[in-house]
Amino acid sequence: MKLSTTIKHLLSATFAAILLTGCATDGSLAGSRKPLAVLHIGGGASHDYNKWFNEADTAMLNATGKISTRYMEPQQATIADVRNADVLLISANKAFPDPAVRAAITAHANSGKGMVLLHPGLWYNWADWPDYNRVLAGGGSRGHDRYGEFQVALNGTNHPLVKGVPASFMISDELYYFEPDTKGTPITVLATATSKQKNKTYPQVFVVNHPKTRIAGLTLGHDGAAHNHEAYRQLLRNALMWAGHRE
Ligand SMILES: [Zn+2]
To answer: Distance from the CA of 223 to the center of ligand 1, in angstroms?
Structure first.
């Protein structure tokens, strides 16, 4: 009787230790979770990448304490960098010179790890990498309105990607003409803007319904007017946390 009680105590203590160890390992205990490892691949033409995409976004994201961002350019990124990331954030419009790194990005998505594609990362940048647009972005942009102020409107969804974002807001930016690829991965649109120059409404915030992972698209972000805009900042934080299953 006494022995079996002791064994029970021992067993329950061991079980509790296993539970605690398990929690510490997968990070499910509140406060013990490692920040989401974000690899931001940016760089290229037409933007002050270092000031806004690197310095401003990295500081803003890391200030949450929930995200740890590394920023680098496509030619610097290695397969190991991609593999070590929980979530990839891609804003680059310069070439990825190493086909193995492009393959690692595709493999990242196929392994179930999330991605966020940001502003220039939603352009048709690379003729030699059509699957980037077709499969990962679900389409792309080949033009935009002249830089100026426009309204972005959520479509009434309560998706985690738009949590805390005003139902509509004004922003000075480039209104991207993002066109879903009818033969590509379908997208679910969460917010739109209407171009007066084109008299047409375009997706601004959306989910790419990749069969294996979570991918978010955010067309905003040309310069400081966006990167310092609270709605942009909330959307980028939300998108990364959602893509990393941390929403
Ligand atoms: Zn731009």
So the answer is: 7
CA distance 138 to 41: 19
- Mean pLDDT score of the chain: 91
Q: Helices in the chain by DSSP H: which ranges?
A: 2-26, 57-62, 79-84, 99-110, 130-131, 224-227, 230-243
Residues around ligand 1, an ion, CB closer than 5 A: 174, 222
Answer yes or no: do 13 and 81 share one domain: no
Global pTM reads 0.88
Do 120 and 225 reside in the same domain of the chain? yes
Question: What separation in Å is there between the alpha carbon of 10 and the centre of ligand 1?
Answer: 62
Non-local (6+) Cβ contacts of 217 within 8 A are: 116, 117, 122, 137, 138, 178, 187, 203, 205, 206, 207, 208
Domain hosting 7: range is 1-33
Residues 72 and 15 in one domain: no
Per-residue pLDDT, averaged over 150-175, amounts to: 97
177 with 132, same domain: the answer is: yes
CB 141, CB 123: distance < 8 Å: yes
pLDDT at 24 over 90: no
Total domains present in the chain: 2
Per residue in 189-221, pLDDT (tens digit) is 999 999 999 999 999 999 999 999 999 999 999
My answer on whether 118 and 21 are in the same domain is no
